[in-house]
Amino acid sequence: MIRLDDYRHVAPPGVVDIILRLTERVRDRRILHLSGGRFGEGPAEMLTTAVPLFQDLGVDTRWEITGGDATFYATTAALRAALEGAERVLADEALAHYVEMNRINAKKLRLDADMVIVHDVQPAPLVGHRGDGRWVWRCHFDASRAQRRVWSFFRQIINQYDAAVFSLPEFGRRLSVPQYVIHPAIDPLSEKNREIGPRDVTTILGALRVAQDKALLLQVGAFTRAQDPLGVVNAYRLVKKHYDVRLVLAGTAGDDRESLEVLADLRQAAHHDPDIVVLELPPEAHLQINALQRAATIVLQKSVRVGFQLAAAEAMWKGKPVIAGVGGGLSQQVINDVTGYVVHSVEGAAFRLRHLLNNPELIARMGAAGREHVRRAFLVTRHLMESLALLAHLTE
Amino acid sequence: MATALNPFVFIGCVELRQALDRHALDERELMDRLEDVPAGSIFYHTHGYFLRHRPLTTAYGNDFARWAAVEVRDQALAERLAVVDPFEFRDLENLREELVTIVHDHLRGLTTVPRAEPGGVFHFQQSHIVTVELGPRATTLAEFRDGLAGVDASAIYFHMVEARARLGRPSGDFVEWMRTSLGLAALAQRIERIDTFMTSLERVRARVLSLVDQALEAHAA
Fold first, then answer.
1. How far is it, in rounded angstroms, from Cα B199 to Cα B50?
2. I want to staple A322 with a disulfide (CB 3.0 to 4.6 A). Which of A170, A209, A340, B215 is the partner?
3. What distance, in Å, lies between the first and last C-alpha atoms of chain A?
4. Closest-CA distance of chain B to residue A179, Å
5. Which chain A residues are within 8 Å of B128, Cβ to Cβ?
6. pLDDT beneath 50: ranges in chain B
7. Helix axes A43-56, A380-395, angle to 10 degrees
8. What ipTM does this complex have?
9. Which residues of B touch A (CB under 8 A)?
């Protein structure tokens, strides 16, 4: 089991001591996390790291999950999509069922705690059954473009909380409760980010059939239009005229029509160019992602407005410059001209790729700056520190 | 050297950010919001800049100048805002007045109001500082030196910035303690003259340590 002391050699000096001192202030409080599941990205990934650390610190911390039937899951998926701005039809009966399932969940769960943190959409209506503690809604996605009608419904639920927490100020919407801002973070000791040696990297890339005989450009992310992998291919083609490079696109593909179309287009592009490698990986391929990011020369995250996107921080932690799309969390993570570049177009990405390949000393300098930026701003220790500060602030 | 009756207690801090429902899409809205946001928001986007930009260069000096430069691409306004030293103002209302006046005067010379790029909205925030006591307490200058060398950088921020700007201790905590508890007026005066604008907390720490080392060496000699 990883303990807080293990982070002393990766976190900024003094941070672990601040966490220990903050813990002394809140040690007698009880925390309850409520989420829709224990697996996957977002809240589950964050809580898998954070809950054991809180317990290691001696803070009474529980993590409960909620369940439901097929209609409930279909409704919450549509609700989440609508809150992220997609067009969805949500019948009043479905929304009533969503609230009802949470009423049933509330009967099964022990909801008493000094601070109850409810993550994302599925368990949100549990606040209707709150006790004496402080209730906080933790939103892990960008709700700024939520469908108006859906937001009108959902806002009534969120306004029953004592506070909401968003990953960025621009991800929130008008609420009658205070909105705090805590950036998500990466765990430097997890399978996805821990140190692995060059020999292991070579072995893993060999198993993935990715040769290391030329400069490697990498994008990690789902095969969706929002991640713009086709734009990355076009940027690569502009660069390929001048540099012998290989492009690896690694990610997961859903079974929806859009993902299948994007994947088919990418495979078509790869079919005509052996230096384009499309790797469809399972969600738990953390070590493979780690090795690919370490082997990369330059990492691209050319997304078009999709949430916070911690893949940029993961790559920077491995000392890689990142060429990122504009907006959302990417603009927070990548400091333009210092840790990489923020670009607005395919041509911009190609220009910056050529600029870096032509100035290899910049690759090392930006990579080092990126690692220090992540050390200070995007490690789980900073997240832990701010979570403890929130606990102290709301419960003292 | 003297031993203080009141030991120096190093205080570290964590900044808990709170989004306000105030935004600016263009420079006129920036001016309007500057006039009505809570003083804590003015503090967050000016003094607070130093806590959040520790290891990298503080290229713009405050969030407003950064926004004008990066999101609006109005270099003239960015330069005028960047040069505002928040430590020169007696209180946050005077600082607010200066910022509003700069934007107002700038807009008077323009025919159209410069607007942020898409996605470049300025979101006003404020912060709550949660404090914790750090390290052993210091009763001598040598103990203070050892404590300062190892303490988290947020303690430099708390004692040199937060104390001066929001807690009504205009000289800062280091200066006050050296002057009143150790009787080291000359050293206190030298530390008070350290320019905390457009630098990093680590550089401020290094400058204070350097001055303290000189004082300790002079005493030993």
1. 8
2. A340
3. 31
4. 5
5. 389, 393
6. none
7. 70
8. 0.89
9. 12, 14-19, 21, 54-56, 70, 119, 121, 123, 125, 128, 130, 132-135, 150-154
Q: What is the number of structural domains in chain B? A: 2
Does B150 map to a domain? yes
Residues B84 and B62 in one domain: yes
Q: Which of B53, B73, B54, B75 is nearest to B63 (CA)?
A: B53
**Residue A254, token pair as written in the block:** 């859903």
Q: Residue B130 falls within a domain, yes or no?
A: no
Question: Distance (Å) from the C-alpha of residue A284 to the closest C-alpha of chain B?
Answer: 33
B167 in the same domain as B88: no
For B44-59, the pLDDT digits (tens) are 999 888 777 655 555 7
Is the residue at B148 inside a domain?
yes
Task: Tell me, yes or no, whether B194 and B143 share the same domain.
Answer: yes
| Type of residue numbered B5 | L
CA distance linking residue A240 with residue A269, whole number of Å: 14
Q: Same domain for B155 and B81?
A: no
- Which residue is listed with tokens 């933790």? A138
Does pLDDT of A370 surpass 90?
yes
Domains and CATH numbers, chain A: 4-185+379-395 (3.40.50.2000), 198-377 (3.40.50.2000)
- Residue B167 and residue B206 in one domain: yes
Report A:355-384 residues touching B (Cβ under 8 A): 369, 372-373, 376
Closest CA relative to residue A117, chosen from A75, A180, A172, A41: A180
Which of B97, B125, B153 marks a domain boundary?
B125
Contacts of A181 in chain B (CB under 8 A): 17-19, 125
Name the residue with tokens 């290989």.
Answer: A246
Domain holding B65, by residue range, is 14-125
| Helix orientation angle between A198-207 and A286-295, rounded to the nearest 10 degrees | 110
The last residue of one of the domains, among B85, B103, B125, is B125
B20 in any annotated domain: yes
DSSP A131-179: -SSEEEEE--S--TT--HHHHHHHHHHHTTSSEEEESSGGG----SS-E
Percentage of chain A beyond pLDDT 70 is 99
Which of A17, A169, A393 is opposite residue B16, by nearest beta carbon?
Answer: A393
Are residues B31 and B86 located together in one domain of the fold?
A: yes
Compute the distance between CA of residue A181 and CA of residue A191 in angstroms, rounded to an integer. 27
The reply to whether A72 touches chain B by the CB within 8 Å rule is no
Q: Is B19 within 8 Å of A179 when comparing Cβ atoms?
A: yes
Q: Are residues B121 and B69 in the same domain?
A: yes
A305 pLDDT more than 70: no
A396 with A25: CB under 8 angstroms?
Answer: yes
A209 burial (CB, 10 Å; 0-12 / 13-18 / 19+) is exposed
